[in-house]
Amino acid sequence: MATYTTVQDIYQTVCWVLMEDNGLELGIVTEQQFLDTFAAVFLEFVQKTGITSEIFTQQINAGQSQYMAPPDMVYLQHCFYGGVILSRETLEELDNETYNWRLKSGTPTKYHEDGLPIKTVELVPTPNYTGTAYTIPVGPDAQPPFGVYGVFNPGDSNLTMVGSQSITYNTFTLGQLIPVIPDSACLYLGYGVLQTLFSTDGEAKDTQRAQYAAARWNEGLNIFQTVSGQLNG
Amino acid sequence: MAVSNYNLEQLQQLALDRVESNSLMFTLPKVTAVINESIQVINLISGFLQSTIAVPGNSVQNQLVYQTPVGILFPLRVQFNGTQLNPTPLWQLASDYYTWATDNTNKRGSVSRWAPIGINNFVIHPADSIGGGTIFVTGVIEPTPLVNPDDSMPLEDEFVSLIMTYCAHRLVFIEGGQPFAQAAPNYQEFLSVMKSKKMFAELRFPRFFVMSGAPTLEAKSNR
Predict the structure, then answer these.
(1) Which residues of B touch A21 (CB under 8 A)?
(2) What is the pLDDT of residue A141?
(3) Interface of B with A in 27-86 (CB under 8 A)
(4) What are the Cα distances from residue A137, in Å, to A140, A144, A152, A168?
């Protein structure tokens, strides 16, 4: 999503603040430490702000009630069946509302995520039909769920998930563009990294600068959580 | 409020003036990076850089989802064929209009609302059944980074002052220790001014307190 900001830019910012202008050479913090911290900070930012969303539609199968979100969807916001929004319920609500709800089948109107593996939803009632099939990729890298991105395809009578976008890997290289988040958000990743480095026991520990970096990191989270809240209502 | 064109060289000089012109410690690449960062932060909070950009390729027949045009950081308004659309959250659109995903202008009249899906997608409702309609998105845009000394941008004097307040503490952050403790109140000042300029009333700023003076030797040895 970033169009010009690379991991190298954040690395350079961190190097400047650690007074190692030509790269991390002193060994107080290593490049690998930076990359590991960066990956953790990036994931936290994406999870906490959810500013970039994606749409994923997958086939519904008769008799199958549970469906997985795609691996790059970090937080599920809404589910739709054939374009119709499904209401999110808790297990308790379902138990109290409908006797033997798990045994019923028909057109799904609700879903829940309680007591299920992460990023899995259960449709209620269980679908009693099979939606239009999508192409299943072949090869060793193909991982379920299989479906299409960016469209609702209401005519296919399938399950559409809308959620915040993340990435499926956790290793970065210095030369790569920062994915998912826009350029203006990338600057806060530097503060997230610095907050961790300055507050971890070691030669780089600096409570004063850790406090400032933490304030800036929280500033970034607050800004993008507010934007996300405004957009998603 | 006076608006003038400032180029990078002028801003660099003003920023260096705030740090005793110490260009050995605060080299031009560092100053440039901090100036660009300050413009990004001020823009994120106040949304002072806004623009209207057309969706490439116009509307497509019966297409529901469109991507936010490149350059728009987050969308604020959408126009379809010159008409302003009403913003509505996706869940509300889908709850209010049961058949929203299959509605088109043939069935439901003109396109009249839009719903953002994150910052990168949005839907229009009802979908355009003809296609070829113009869609313009107005929003906060990504600032173009200042790279060359003569790269310039129009800035209100007040924003220039804010950029300098930002640079005054952010540059010294590199130095740490007592100089940073002395410069850190500039961040508090920056936040207090930005509170009156924020675009979203709901935005809350972090608490930040400045430690008084430099850490004592005893405190350092206890780290």
Answers:
(1) 27
(2) 77
(3) 27, 30, 33, 37, 40-41, 43-45, 64-65, 70, 73-75
(4) 10, 9, 20, 17
